[in-house]
Design a protein that fits this description.
The complex is a heterodimer of chains A (about 625) and B (about 350).
Chain A: H1 12-23, E1 39-44, H2 59-68, E2 73-75, E3 81-83, E4 86-92, E5 95-100, H3 114-128, H4 141-145, E6 149-156, E7 159-164, H5 181-184, H6 189-192, E8 214-220, E9 224-229, E10 243-248, H7 252-261, E11 266-268, H8 272-278, E12 284-290, E13 293-299, H9 318-325, H10 330-338, E14 342-344, H11 368-377, E15 397-401, H12 409-422, E16 426-429, H13 434-440, E17 453-459, H14 465-468, H15 487-497, H16 502-519, E18 522-535, E19 539-540, H17 559-562, E20 565-566, H18 579-583, H19 592-628
Parallel strand pairs in A: 1-10, 1-11, 15-16, 15-17
Antiparallel strand pairs in A: 2-3, 4-5, 5-7, 6-7, 8-9, 9-10, 11-18, 12-18, 13-17, 13-18, 14-18, 19-20
Chain B: H1 3-29, H2 35-40, H3 48-57, E1 67-70, E2 73-76, H4 81-90, H5 105-140, H6 145-159, H7 162-176, H8 195-233, H9 236-243, H10 248-286, H11 291-300, H12 304-332
Helix pairs in contact in B: 1-12, 5-6, 5-8, 5-10, 5-12, 6-8, 7-8, 7-10, 8-10, 9-10, 10-11, 10-12, 11-12
The chains are: A alpha+beta (about 625), B mainly alpha (about 350).
């Protein structure tokens, strides 16, 4: 998963016609009950454009489909495998048997069976054989392909047998929603994958049919998605909200204001200064989670060898890269760039992966004298003017860049220019347009590998495998942007992927982390923080996932939603729900009616004022004409 | 209005639109980064064959212009990206959005155009009515209390950026006093008992963004109208009218106002272009689901087809607004019709 995934005037008549058009009741399904549904509203700065899970790219997309659907195996609080679409499973070497819950139904009442699993997984296997090689945006296929899935078969309604190419446990981490065959099989692979030349299947025929705890019932692309509780949910534990609304905000400032007023209950992606301000707000709690990812300084380890566009061979020298690691004060970067929220970086598996992150045995500390010593020892000496020379006797002058989409790296760059400058290495720091940067950091044979140093970041999956992939030799030309190549690393990658024994896998992962830390194709600058905030006066039961460094929502799957409890007063007959109350924003607690009455009066006042002015002007224009006659 | 005047204006507008289409094409081709790599970044298991297949499917392997140069000299090709682009644009096909995956740019724009038209249509209307009235009265009673206060307030509003004004209104009236909702056009997911309730909810959401747009525009309209009235009132024909013994009110309404309106017509037309820039900030502050927020999202997500569509739509509407202004000008002032 990549980080990047990371007007006019008219006459009054026309205006009122347009107004009318907007106000005509749209297809909002009325809730046939006499009490107001309990609605959880969560705000995000990520765009909401996707209901077809295969088109998912950003975190919000994944949140949407894991509300609608179950994974074959869901994620528990600490990302451990827990029953999802499958109730239980056994592994026998490369053969997996998944047992589907008997009597489970889709949200439309149709039986949910092993055939649905076979159908969904087969879609991916079939897509690999097409021109496109994958489905939709191609983010989900990898979960099955990395696990080496070769065949999927429903042997009876409650049993799925999956064969893998090699023994591994990645199948239990596969982020693939199980889809209802009776709905999706009406569409071709091309329609589902949104290939050109066919009518794309957008899955926007609402309500969505799934087995997840909530299904989308209303979708305004780019604005919000409303979900209603699945009446056929198989879970024993269900969340208190009757409905969930995920709301998109173009400006996170506005989302924070809406959280303050109680118009929303949750915000993801708050900035450091807003986070500080929210700390002391009544009825609001803040959460500082650890991001499953990092921001790095990457070296063009291909240097100036053939096919690579680096300025000097020094970039290919691990000793040179290691020495520069002593010239980076990661604490200072966390303080200056992240406002103190975040963790100084070390290895390529973020501490988010509590089971797999192993701090380096000999961590580098910020020490410019040590950096100087190491550079000199490695043969990079100073000339008479205090300029550092590479082994060919040329003055070291390196380009440092970052994508324009990640503006905070400009602050990091200022520090690097100073620190590396102190070592006699001149740095030309300049931002690059994101698209151009992606081209420049693509290695041979598909790209020019034309850079020296650059900063960007990656976001990982529940399993660290995808984050480890970028350092494989075979990824050069694809996802590898440091062009790092190490036979032992490549071997360890395959070993860890196929290893079912946790202790043994940790040993492999420890060696991989040490190897990359020592040879330093990347210097991990910091692990970003996930800054979220939520209201504590309407819902309780906010549960962090994972329990350490996690966040209550926008984690992994629908877990957090199912834990929520209601703090609302038991009001079976909300007598205050006057017509205006129903249409006013839902503020916290009870103070609903006065606020809405106030605003109604005010609006009516404004409308009346505009009307009086308009009528007055018309009269002023008219009177003279009668005088003239 | 003569037919040749109309024809001249129309052909000039059409020519401008044609130029816009060409610029739109070149601008987006000149952007750095190859589209297939930007789209496929980070997606696992993309092979060179797939990248090549994507280039072929998207026509990126065709020459960009009908005439290109290579080692062998000038190459003329009918099968080029420019002809295909112009053909598709004329046919109304703006392509597919990268972000709203699977949706056409036309669909995406259609969802977002009405909120912006309503907000800025009403905002312009309120600003024109209030601004012209205030400006005319201030100019007529130059040096009076309304003039002093009105002129000061107008200058302040004129010089305040939209987002600042919007943020201030938001903090005072939404977060502070809680009279209005902070975001959106309607409360998401609410079932309205009747159309009236929906209207009230809509107006509550509209109030602050509308106030921001109107206040942002009213200052400049008032200032231009005021100086235009002051200038007109010192003209000979106004002195003549006074000499004829006409009442001050009548002089204002029948002689000064119609002539003083001319500069404001062109101001309003020119303004439509700037309003678009303003739309982006006002819509973002209030999370108004219009073209402004769409443009921001498309820009951050590098959704080039949608950006191209927004550019085309906005520039064409500015050209059309200017065409309308020219025609109204022609009606108001017979001298320009020749």
């Amino acid at each position: 998963m990549a980080q990047s995934a990371r007007v006019r005037f008219g006459r009054a008549l026309l205006a009122s016609a347009l107004l009318g058009a907007t106000l005509l009741p749209a297809g909002v399904p009325a809730l046939a009950s006499n009490h107001e549904p309990l609605v959880l509203r969560a705000g995000t700065d990520q765009d909401l454009q996707v209901l077809n899970p295969w088109n998912s790219v950003v975190v919000a997309d994944f949140e949407v489909y894991t509300l609608n659907y179950d994974l074959l195996v869901n994620f528990g609080q600490d990302l451990e495998p827990v029953p999802g679409f499958a109730e239980s499973w056994d592994q026998d070497g490369t053969t997996w048997t998944f047992h589907i819950r008997p009597g489970m139904n889709w949200s439309d009442g149709e039986p949910a069976t092993a055939d649905d699993v076979a159908y969904t997984f087969q879609l991916i296997l079939d897509a690999v054989d097409t021109d496109y090689g994958c489905l939709g945006q191609c983010y989900l296929d990898g979960y099955l392909l990395n696990a080496g899935v070769t065949s999927v078969e429903a042997t009876d309604a409650e049993t799925v047998v999956i064969e893998t190419e090699f023994e591994n446990t990645l199948l239990l981490q596969s982020y693939v929603p199980i889809l209802p065959e009776h709905v999706w099989s009406e569409y071709t692979l091309e329609e589902i994958g949104n290939h050109e030349g066919v009518e794309p299947f957008l899955n926007d025929d609402l309500p969505v049919v799934g087995t997840g705890p909530y299904q989308a019932v209303e979708f305004e692309p780019g604005n919000f998605i409303r979900f209603a509780r699945n009446e056929h949910d198989w879970r024993d534990e269900q969340g208190a909200p009757d409905e969930v609304i995920i709301q998109h905000f173009s400006s996170i400032d506005t989302a924070v204001q809406a959280l303050r007023t109680g118009e929303i209950d949750y915000v993801r992606g708050i900035l450091a200064d807003q986070f500080d301000a929210l700390r002391n707000e009544p009825d609001i709690a803040v959460v500082e989670g650890i991001a499953n990812g990092y921001t790095e300084l990457s070296f063009n380890t291909g240097g100036n060898s053939e096919g690579y566009g680096g300025r000097t061979a020094a970039l290919s020298d691990p000793a040179f890269r290691d020495a520069l690691g002593y010239a980076i004060d990661t604490d200072a970067l966390v303080e200056a760039t992240l406002g103190g929220y975040g963790t100084p970086g070390s290895t390529i598996i973020p501490p988010f992966h509590t089971r797999w992150h192993v701090p380096p045995e000999n961590p580098r500390t910020f020490d410019l004298a040590e950096a100087d010593r190491r550079l000199t020892a490695a043969g990079y000496v100073l000339d008479g003017d205090g300029r550092r020379l590479d082994k060919d006797g040329n003055q070291l002058n390196l380009r440092l860049t970052w994508p324009d989409s990640e503006a905070e790296n400009a602050t990091n760059a200022q520090f690097m220019v100073e620190w590396f400058g102190d070592l006699g290495i001149e740095i030309d720091a300049a931002v690059t347009e994101e698209g151009a940067l992606i081209d420049a950091v693509t290695g041979p044979p598909n790209g020019p590998a034309d850079y020296d140093l650059y900063m960007w970041g990656w976001v990982g999956d529940p399993d660290p495998t995808s984050l480890l992939n970028f350092f494989r030799t075979e990824e050069i030309g694809f996802s590898s942007d440091s062009f790092y190549s190490n036979e032992r690393y490549d071997e360890l990658f395959l070993l860890q992927r196929a290893e079912s024994d946790e202790e043994q896998r940790l040993a492999y992962l420890t060696e991989m982390q040490e190897l990359v830390y020592a040879e330093a194709p990347y210097h991990i600058l910091y692990y970003d923080a996930e800054l979220h905030a939520y209201r504590t006066d309407r819902f309780g039961g906010w549960t962090l996932q994972p329990s350490e460094g996690g966040t209550p929502l926008f984690g992994y799957g629908s877990f957090g939603y199912t834990k929520l409890t209601s703090l609302a007063e038991p009001t079976p007959e909300p007598s205050s729900a006057a017509p205006s109350g129903a249409a006013s924003p839902p503020p916290s607690g009870g103070g609903e009616t006065p606020a809405s009455t106030d605003s109604t009066l005010l609006i009516l006042g404004v409308v009346a004022l505009v009307a009086v002015i308009a009528v007055g002007l018309v009269l002023v224009r008219r009177r003279p004409s009668t005088e003239e006659e | 209005m003569s037919g040749s005047y109309l024809a001249r204006r129309l052909s000039s507008a059409l020519f401008t639109i044609a130029l816009i289409v060409v610029v739109n094409f070149i601008l987006f081709r000149a952007m750095p980064g190859s589209p297939e790599r930007v789209i496929l970044r980070g997606t696992p298991n993309v092979t060179p064959a797939q990248l090549e297949a994507a280039r072929e499917r998207w026509g990126l392997n065709d020459p960009i212009f009908p005439i290109s140069f290579d080692a062998g000299g000038v190459v003329v090709s009918g099968d080029n990206q420019f002809f295909k682009f112009v053909g598709a644009t004329v046919a109304g096909d703006l392509g597919y959005s990268f972000v709203a995956r699977g949706q056409t740019v036309g669909d995406v724009l259609a969802q977002r155009i009405w909120p912006t038209v309503i907000l800025f249509g009403l905002g312009e209307l309120v600003a024109i009515v209030l601004g012209l009235a205030l400006g005319a009265y201030s100019g007529w009673r130059r040096g009076g209390r309304v003039d002093l206060v009105g002129n000061g307030v107008s200058l302040v509003l004129y010089s305040t950026p939209y987002f600042l004004l919007g943020m201030a209104l938001l903090l005072v009236f939404a977060t502070g006093l809680r009279w209005f909702p902070t975001f959106g056009m309607l409360t998401a997911g609410v079932t309205y008992p009747d159309l009236g309730a929906r209207l009230v909810d809509f107006l509550a959401h509209l109030a602050l963004p509308l106030a921001t747009v109107s206040l942002g525009l009213v200052g400049q309209y008032a200032i231009v109208m005021r100086s235009s009235i002051v200038e007109t009132l010192s003209d000979d024909y106004v002195t003549t009218a006074r000499g004829m013994g006409l009442s001050e009110g009548r002089i204002l309404r029948h002689h000064a106002l119609p002539n003083a309106l001319l500069p404001t017509v062109s101001l309003i037309a020119i303004n439509l272009g700037y309003v678009v820039a303003g739309a982006i900030t006002v819509e973002v502050v209030f999370n108004w689901p219009g073209l402004g927020t769409l443009a921001v999202e498309a820009l951050t997500a590098r959704d080039y087809p949608v950006l191209q569509g927004v550019f085309l739509l906005l520039s064409v509407s500015v050209v059309l607004a200017n065409l309308v202004a020219d025609l109204i000008y022609g009606l108001l002032d017979p001298r320009v019709r020749t």
